Amino acid sequence: MYIRGDHAELVVGGRLDVRSAADARTVLHAAVDDGVGDLLLDLSELDSWDATGLGVIMGAHRRAGRCGRRLVLRDVPPQMQRLLVATRLHRILAIEGGIGVDTLPRV
């Protein structure tokens, strides 16, 4: 897993899972704490995430809200869009362009 960017926009790539969760949490929380306005998380290079990785995203979302910021997801890969819809988190998280629920392939 890697994260590059600054306190306004981050690109997350690789696997966001139990092995990378602690490092990802540290980077995301620092970005939230050090900036103002929306924090854009570009997920176009993310290969996969598990429940722990999704928990890291939700933790960053809650922290951003407490800091008066908003976490915005961009370019969420289709398989991760399905997970967000299945867990109904697409209704809570800000997703640039939204998710076309009707256009997602069925599993």
Automatic annotation (TrEMBL):
CDD domains: STAS_anti-anti-sigma_factors (cd07043)
Top-level taxon of origin: Bacteria
One of the Pfam families matching this protein, by short name: STAS_2
Sequence intervals crossing the membrane: none
Signal peptide feature range: none
All residue ranges annotated as the STAS domain in the record: 1-107
NCBIfam families in the cross-refs: ant_ant_sig (TIGR00377)
Family note: Belongs to the anti-sigma-factor antagonist family.
Protein name as it appears in the record: Anti-sigma factor antagonist
Organism: Streptomyces chlorus
High-level lineage: Bacteria, Bacillati, Actinomycetota, Actinomycetes, Kitasatosporales
